[in-house]
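User: I'm writing a tutorial on reading structure tokens. Could you give me a worked example: one chain, its sequence, then its tokens, then a sentence or two explaining what the tokens reveal?
Assistant: Sure. Here is the example chain.
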Amino acid sequence: MNYTEKLQLSAAILNKAKEFGATLVGITDFEELKKAPSYTVAPQMPEYNSVGAYEGKMPDKKSGEVDWPDTAKSVVVIAYAHPAKQPELDYWYGEISPTGNKRLIAITNKLGKWLAEEYGIKAVNLPYHVEKGGIYLKDAAALAGLGCIGKNNLLLTPEYGSQVRLRAMAVNVDLPPTGPLTFDPCNGCDERCNKRCPQQSFREKIYTAEKFGREELPGRNGDYNRARCDIQMAIDEATAEIQDVEGIAEPVRVIKYCRRCELACPVGRTI
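And here are its predicted structure tokens:
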């Protein structure tokens, strides 16, 4: 496949993903991902075993160390808009995955099937946990041109701010990347995202470039404390109420995780 054909294939993938329901979509490659901040910084950070951690870590991998598919060459990153007026897209109903996750999975499943049928391309729907073959989605999305990493330590898109949910799939063909962007609305902002955190997760610098060997750090300047953020997630779980939910036979515990830093950001306030 020559470069022109690859460009045409990339354009077809972007269009088809949106046809299947993606709000935003971009492409990057695994070689660039290997240089991204999370892939070098995360394995040096303290091991994480709290909310959202994958219990079955690969025995030969450090906490935060990746385990990618051998055939992976490029990554298609999908974003699905999560407006403030639809908070239920991120609610956990007992052990049932949020509606937003299900919609993202449906999009990548359809896209993978289409790639196989139309082009004979093998696609792998990547899991969320890096130790299980997933990728750091925010870094991948930034490299794919969907946005940048904001001071709230979230992906920040021009169109929707941080109000998006992400999913990705790997394909076994080299495709032209669609990013990154020269977009950074955080410079000079008043950091209202950080000020809204109920656990003050950004109150002090805990990571340094000298220690981790690069300037790109959690929270951009090394002040994002995941352990503090986790305190709020644990509170959200502990205070979750049992409710009747349409489509579920029995009442379930509905977990509504904190989104204060995400919703405080003024960027993309169009949804």
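What the tokens reveal: The mean pLDDT is 91. The longest strand covers residues 74-81.
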